[in-house]
């Protein structure tokens, strides 16, 4: 994994801006700690930071190859990602006469573009964000993987387009102002910590949507979808469906275990991470690669303060031991304390360039930092709940009929937090309703479905396209902030497309959430783990954390220079902070963000406004 940045500028000589591209590139150093490279021509500049995973000696970027049928004009590539079907693509390209100088997938991608142009994306299986400059055609092409595992942002101005793996790279350009307008604030306070697809929050900054390509030349810019979810009839029975799920999952896990550097799995003892770890152990045994290393996260004194509830029914520790004993992995438990979590809130903002999931982000950052000391690549279970229907809101009638995003039900509380002036300007309820209507309008309909099936298809689509990106964004930023590559097998587009069309009664085979996934793994996991009730990513239950973030937030509200004050209703926040049940506001966002996370999120907003010297354009 890497970091990419650059621009195309028709109005200036880019060869005279070496310092600027160097500065933009260096903002992404943590994403690529192993090497750095830049390339400049009159109208185009590229920068790249490299994390070496495949062919450390041969995969330097920006990478240049002659354009098709030309020895005088080049194609230049900067790329962040992994292609899991690189061997097949390489073989096909070699049959067409291409010769390779390296063993890395970067060269495979570049030669694929030389041969097929923008249509090369249809052949890719992997996670990626890349940019190619075609010298002869004076054209930039950029693309992002189908599910949006790898990030890519851009900013278009008169005669110029800037891009970067993260907003910080674009913000480093001297002509770009760190400004946010009313719509950006609405994303933060109404939608956040999620984001509307394509929205960059920063003024005039956008995210290239998952499954989209972008073309930019002297005639202008065009973005288009090269892939999107489609609705089809599902014709297999329960047994056939379970077999297909198993085959797809096993194939993608094996593809993603290929690496020239140490690899591990993240293990919580839940269904998803246990399944990936078991499949990895099986593959390692068959290929003679030794024991799999596993990592888990917990918090000091969590066992003393844990309280079971519908969203988190039991603790992970006993289940982790069950799986590590069962699979004989080399296990590395990691544990953090309240002061570390509170201190890492600011670091998490710097990693994301925005406020995020508070200590859920901060703990992941700390976790990844520890893993990086012993591994470079990790396998993680993100996306299984979104595609198989594992979250509680898939199974609650009130959430299914809520006519809003089920992870953002506390709309009244969100509105109450804002200052009267900002509330009037943002119109929170209307903004959320518009974004929800936009999402629902995208759902690909299947003629002939009854209302119940339509409702479940809609819920699946919302989770895959609106909630899942939040977790993928979180995983990318917190891991890449320490130079750790995290792969997510459940995001294989073949698996996601197939499962999207499985009828709900088959998805819940055996009358259980994610029933078809469980059935597909009956010979992989022990039955107690296979049918363990879902428990999400662990968070701290220590009351000291609530006290710490509540106390810090009250200090910020007492600071007359705080940039947060004009945006919020400080009196209302103080009321919440004084309430004895401050920790019981469940859920404020998703399953994990309750009272402590609300206070921490506001702390992150305050820090973000200060550190980035955000200019509000209202």
Automatic annotation (TrEMBL):
Pathway note: Amino-acid biosynthesis; L-asparagine biosynthesis; L-asparagine from L-aspartate (L-Gln route): step 1/1
Name this protein carries in UniProt: asparagine synthase (glutamine-hydrolyzing)
Molecular functions (GO terms): asparagine synthase (glutamine-hydrolyzing) activity
Name of the top EC class for this enzyme: ligase
Superkingdom of the source species: Bacteria
EC number(s) recorded for this UniProt protein: 6.3.5.4
Species classification: Bacteria, Bacillati, Bacillota, Bacilli, Bacillales
Pfam families (UniProt xref): Asn_synthase, GATase_7
Organism this protein belongs to: Cohnella cellulosilytica
Recorded family membership: Belongs to the asparagine synthetase family.
UniProt keyword list: Amino-acid biosynthesis, Asparagine biosynthesis, ATP-binding, Glutamine amidotransferase, Ligase, Nucleotide-binding
